[in-house]
């Protein structure tokens, strides 16, 4: 019996020793701390570990905990063999509260769970750099560590739960090119949110922002620029993050569900030229203000994508084919502009209130109006309209002779315009001209407007004798202002103007069809004009003269 008891005691001691001494060898690093290593199964690399495990997360029982700033070496020598340091094992420095800033080696590929949990707890924090060689960062690897600035390397593909739930963290440089495995939230949780981050930069080589990567970045005040290299933003990537402005690069084709959900302080948004899909609730209950311009490449807008933002107008590109219910349910929305020539599929309250004006391409207005008879959602919108793209100008060449106006303007469903010319008394219509070219001799003109069009109505003198009106004399405008016009075909003639006292106030030769007389200095009142033919008295010659016409003219 005693012999059996001794064997059991020996086995227990051996088991305890195997549990307490959890390393293969130890070595002093360049910063003076004793580090403990296990040789990996490949035989050429090692993992940094803790010296023992006495239970209850006490991994340094009976050993001196590392203190001060620490540098993890690239390699370590043991029994004449040089081993690459590729891993920091789980709990390797757990609870080493006096451990300072850690500098990690460029040979590391993995940092285990809780590896630095609770270290460097005092002070402002340091700049923690996860080297480009690292692929995996385990859960709570740096939880409760005082870090001011964090750089995540390009090769990181796996980030565990609360991996960077650091204190004092203010700056993040995220460079992981294609991280696709994130256990959310890596930077905090709904129970213990990280409330200090004010700067976030995303590297130029990042391709994908994984789901929930920046989940619950509450109380932030930072701008975010998504570089052109990013092709997708995962679901809830910036959920409840209080970013203030977002610029998304031209390479992004998809924004995932709830990507920026509840980002109340997000007031400015610029979307890239390559975007095709905005998924459900992507910008739900943000604070985006004013005019939102969606890129021409966009095809699909998901359910409630921009629900309860502060948008006043939305411009939607030509490629959109589907916009789900409440996609733009914004109470301040005043106008929607759609460039798609084919009416897209929509849902209930896609554009909020059914009275919201919706402007569509002119050439497609009839299609949009027609679909209202077959689609219950389009039928609800009562203010679908368009802006005719061409300008029509109609005017008279001389408003004293006649006037012109549009009787029927062109529109998107009927490009035919109608105009009419009206001559004043003593005149008749001559022709319509555009750019100096006669387009019609009819007073009522119908013409298709397919470009900007300027129509001018021309008139001529009429005295009731169609075969010969060259001798008619007309004074206009009457009443008039600073100019008196005498129109006549007479030659070897002159005009005289008298006031009511019989005083001659003006005499002038008639050399053209229209003689313009400057009456700017004349007093207001009634004047008598007389047109004579024969030898002009202005040339101080004598001869026979004939009074051809006389009349009264009023200056106002």
Fourth CATH level, the homologous superfamily of the domain at 22-197? Ribonuclease Inhibitor
β-strand percent reads 35-45%
According to DSSP, the number of beta strands is 44
Mean model confidence by pLDDT = 87
Q: What is the CATH architecture descriptor of the domain at 22-197? A: Alpha-Beta Horseshoe
Shape: elongated
Structural class: mainly beta
Q: In angstroms, what is the radius of gyration?
A: 44 Å
Under CATH, the topology of the domain at 22-197 can be stated as: Leucine-rich repeat, LRR (right-handed beta-alpha superhelix)
Under CATH at level 1, the class of the domain at 22-197 stands as Alpha Beta
Q: What share of residues is helical?
A: under 10%
Low-pLDDT residue spans = 1-19, 464-469
Total DSSP helices: 3
Features:
556 residues; mainly beta; Leucine-rich repeat, LRR (right-handed beta-alpha superhelix); Immunoglobulin-like; seven-stranded parallel β-sheet; disordered N terminus
Would you write up a description of this structure?
5% of the residues lie in helices and 37% in strands. The strands form 10 sheets. Strands 1, 2, 3, 5, 6, 8, 10, 12 and 14 form a 9-stranded mixed β-sheet that branches. Among the domains are: 22-197, Leucine-rich repeat, LRR (right-handed beta-alpha superhelix), CATH 3.80.10.10; 392-461, no CATH class; 473-555, Immunoglobulins (Immunoglobulin-like, Sandwich). The chain contains 3 helices and 44 strands. With 556 residues, the chain is mainly beta. Residues 1-19 and 464-469 have low confidence and may be disordered.
